[in-house]
Amino acid sequence: MGYRSTYDGWKADPEGFWMGLADAIDWKRKPTQALFADKAPIYEWFSDGLVNTCWNAVDRHVAAGRGAQTAIIHDSPITGTKHKITYAELLDRVARLAGALRARGVGKGDRVIIYMPMVPEALEAMLACARIGAIHSVVFGGFAANELAVRIDDAQPKAIIAASCGLEPGRIVNYKPLVDAAIEQARHKVDFTLILQREHAPSKLIAGRDFDWHEAQADVEPVDCVAVEGNHPAYILYTSGTTGAPKGVVRATAGHLVALNWSMKAVYNVEAGDVFWAASDVGWVVGHSYICYAPLIAGCTTIVFEGKPVGTPDAGTFWRVIAEHGVKSFFTAPTALRAIKREDREGAFIKAQDLSGLKALFLAGERADPDTIEWAKAHLGIPVIDHWWQTETGWAIAANPLGIEELPVKIGSPSVPMPGYDVRVLDEGGHPVKAGTLGAIAVKLPLPPGTLPTLWNAEDRFRKSYLNHFPGYYETGDAGYVDEDGYLYIMARTDDVINVAGHRLSTGAMEEVLASHPDVAECAVIGVADQLKGQMPVGFLCLNKGAARDHADVVAECVKLVRDRIGPVAAFKLACVVDRLPKTRSGKILRATMVKIADGEDYKMPATIDDPAILDEIRVALAGIGYPTS
Ligand code: COA
Ligand code: AMP
Prior knowledge:
The protein is α/β, with parallel strands linked by helices and 630 residues long. The protein has a seven-stranded mixed sheet with strand order 5-4-17-16-18-19-20, sandwiched between helices.
C-alpha cells in the first residue's frame, strides 16, 4: 500500500486503522475501542486497555528470545568511552532501579523528575518509572536551577533522579548543586533524590535525602511491570510557551505506544534488529520519542551519544558513529548539519567512512534550509528527509514516510501529513485558504494517538493555547502553506516562541527575566536570523530614568541573569540599550518589524506605528551589535 491509499484508508476508517495498529502492542487487557470522545474536545485513545510501556520496550523482546541483542549503545567522545547494553541486561537494570524507587515509596501516578546527561542511565530511569506506572518529567541539563524549581512546583514529584554532573566540551556541568538549589527554591518538597555519581565530578550527598544510584539498588528486589490504563500519563514534558511558565505536555500511555511503534517502520523504515540513532538529548521530545521509547518499543538498537556534532573531537564524529555502529536511519537537527558543513564543506570526513549501511537522514526541530539539505544529499547520496512535528504531538505531523512509500522530495517542505493528521491552513477567521496561501496551520480534531490529551494540571490553559482560537481544530502555532500537491511548507511561528539550535525557547520568558533587572524599565526580546543556529535571541533594554549606569555593564548583567535564571541553553548573549521601543498606538511592541530590521529585510512601515523615528534608533542600536550581519 502506498502513501495515498494508507492516508485515505485512515480517513475512511480511523477507528479500524488505529485498532489494527494496536495489535502490534502487547496488552494486559486489549482496548475495546480506539477513540474515546465523550469529553470532546478533549480526546483520549485506548482508555479501557491495560498496558505497560516498559514491558513493550524491554521485557517483550527478551521474552521473544532477543535478550542478547544490543538495546543501547553508549558512545561518548567526551569521555572517550563506549559500551553496549543488551536487552536482557537492560531488563535487569531497569527492574532493579524500579525496585529501588518502589522501596522508597514511588508508585503508580507519582511523579519523578529526571535531570540527567546523555548516559544510558537516563533511559533506564525513564523506563523504571514506566515500569511501575510513575510519571516521569525529564528536564534538559542546559536549564538552570530556577527552571528546575518551576518544574518541581508544577509536577510535584516524589523524587528527583539526577547525575552528579554532565559534560560539555571543556566544561563540567555540576548538576547536583543545581538540584540542591532547585529543591531549596521550590515550594514543593521532594521525598528523596537518587544520584548517579560520575567519576568526573562526584557530588556530596545529604544524608537521609540523597541516595546513591547503586547503593539504593543493592538490597532491593527487582519489580515486575505494572499495567496501567491506556489514558494513564506516561510522562510530562515541559515546553516553552508565550510566558515564562512552561507548558506541561502530557503524554498518555497507550496512544504513545501504538503511534511510536508504527512510526518506526512507516516513517523511518527500520525494524527490530536495526540500529537507529537520533542525535538529540533526552531532555527534548526527540530524545523521549526517538532515543528512548520508539526504537526500544520496535526492538531496534538505539544510540545514546554524549558529544557534539563538531569539536568532539571533530566534524567527523557523526559519520564515525554511524559507520562504527552500523546505523541504518539517522535523525538530527539542521543546526548540527550546518555546524558540520561549516567545518567540512567538501565532505572529507564523510568520504573517510564506510557509510554504506546508512539508508536515510531525517531532519526536524527547526526549518531545514535548502543549502544544508543539498549539501547532505550530495555528500551522503541518500534521501534527506525533512519532517515536521512538535513536543505536543510527540511524532511526525508531516513527513515523507519512507517505510510506506518514498515520495518525491520537495526541498523546503517536510512533505505530507501523516495518517491521523487532517492538516488545514486557516485564515484569521478560521476559514481554509487556497493552496499556496499563507495561513495558520491547524489540525482537525481529534489529534491522533500519541499526541497530547491535555496540559498537566492546566486543562484551561490547554484549551486557551490550542483549542479556542479555531474551534474544532488544534492550533499548531506554526504558519505556512500547502501547495497544489498537498505538500506542507512551515514558514514561521505565530507566537513568541523562537527556535535556537533546534531548541524551543520563549522570548516572553527571557523578557520576564530581563524585566526583573533593577535598572530595566522595559524590554523586548526578538529572534534574529543566525547562519548556524537558525535564530538567536537579541534583547532591547530601556533603562529606568536616572539609572546612570554604563550600558555595557547593564548588558553584561542581563546576559548573566538570563543564563543564571533560564540556563545556558537560552544562548542569550546579545543585547543593546535603547531609549524607547517601537510600538503601535495601542502600545503593542512591533517585534516583527524589529526582526526585519535586524535581518536586513525590507519592511512596510506599520500603519499603526506610534512614532516612526524610533525605528531609526533601533537600526542604530542593532548596527552597534553587528546587525544586520551582511
Ligand atoms: N547541559 C548543560 N549545558 C548545555 C547542555 C546540557 N545538556 N547543552 C547545551 N548546553 C550549553 C552549551 O554548553 C552552551 O553553553 P555556552 O554558552 O557556555 O557555550 C549553551 O548551552 C548553548 O548550547 P547550544 O545552543 O547547543 O550551542 P553550542 O555552542 O554548545 O553548540 C551546536 C552548537 C551547533 C554544536 C549545537 O547547538 C548542536 O549540536 N545543536 C544540535 C541541536 C539539537 O540537537 N537540538 C535538539 C533538538 S532536536
Ligand atoms: P519542539 O516542540 O521543541 O519540537 O519545537 C516544535 C517547533 O519547531 C514547531 O512548532 C516548529 O516551529 C519547529 N519545527 C519543528 N520541525 C520543523 C520542520 N521540519 N520545519 C520547520 N519548523 C519545524
